Amino acid sequence: MSFLRRYLVAGLLVWLPLGATFLVINLLVSWMDNSLLLLPEAYRPDNLFGFHIPGLGVLLSLLILLLTGLVAANLFGRKVVSMWEGLLARIPLVRSVYSAVKQMVETMFADKGKSFRKVVLVEFPRRGLWTLAFLTSEESGAVQQATGRDVVNVYIPTTPNPTGGYFVLVPKEDIRDLDMSVDEGLKMLLSMGAVNPGDGLAESEVKP
Q1: For residue 157, what are the β-bridge partners?
Q2: C-alpha to C-alpha distance for 149 and 171, rounded to whole angstroms
Q3: What is the pTM assigned to this prediction?
Q4: Tens of pLDDT along 173-205?
Q5: Cβ-contact 136, 154 below 8 angstroms
Q6: How far apart are alpha carbons 141 and 127 in whole angstroms?
Q7: Dist. CA 186–CA 155, nearest whole Å
Q8: Closest CA to 153 of 136, 166, 165
Q9: Where are the domains of the chain?
Q10: How far is CA 192 from CA 129, 157, 168, in A?
Q11: Closest by Cα among 106, 68, 108 to 84
Q12: Whose CA is closest to 55, among 37, 72, 32, 75?
């Protein structure tokens, strides 16, 4: 039984990561292949070639993003985008969602942005218990004035699904920086602590 268990576990370690990777990539490719529906029916690859070619939607999606970026980066494109955003700003519910998502994307993908680029330790859900969190912003203007303290915005993801979590405002002196990359932090969260960065969290250099 020990012999069988050893090699069954070894087999799982090979196939489970491969299977999960395949499922995720297949889901993304299938989702992006829907962009082919934007083409006139007569010019869709399935009709032209008589069979489906996976991944063509990915190329089309990248091409659309590239062309959109080229248009939006010039003077005429900026005016069009400005007019479009002005129109969206007049719609009550839409303007709230659009502005929030736009600001989040600009913050995350800006060259000098700091969102989700730093892993910290915070005491959560109570004092004495520590968990990993991602620093999202160091500016909380109105909140700092209301609390009278220097607070920062952190996102505490759940595990093993980091897409859900908690947004918490934490006093700056109560967080601890970690010598850990975002990739290492995500691996630790996804594995529920089974995968530790380097020599492990306990031996990481923790700076108050």
Answers
A1: 165
A2: 7
A3: 0.54
A4: 888 988 888 888 888 888 888 777 764 444 333
A5: yes
A6: 25
A7: 13
A8: 136
A9: 119-207
A10: 15, 11, 21
A11: 68
A12: 32
